[in-house]
Amino acid sequence: MKTEFNHAANDSPRSGSSKKATPVGWAVFVIAMAACAIWLFMRA
Q1: Exposure pattern of 6-44 as b/e (b: 16+ CB <10 Å)?
Q2: How far is CA 34 from the centre of its chain?
Q3: 21: part of which helix (H) or strand (E)?
Q4: What 8-state DSSP symbol labels residue 42?
Q5: Within 13 A of 6's CA, how many CA atoms are on the CB side?
């Protein structure tokens, strides 16, 4: 039994990076929006 096959059957190697990048992109977006909101609140 091979232990190196640890990904799903429909998961291709090329789709792995995009699946990891999407949550990172949303996290950066949320942090940027929070930073803008805090900045505007401090200026008011």
Answers
A1: eeeeeeeeeeeeeeeeeeeeeeeeeeeeeeeeeeeeeee
A2: 17
A3: helix 13-43
A4: H
A5: 2
Name which of 15, 35, 42 is nearest 7 in CA terms: 15
What are the tokens at 38? 């805090």
Mean pLDDT of 19-24: 76
SS3 10: coil
Tell me the residue length of the chain.
Answer: 44
Q: Which pTM value belongs to this model?
A: 0.53
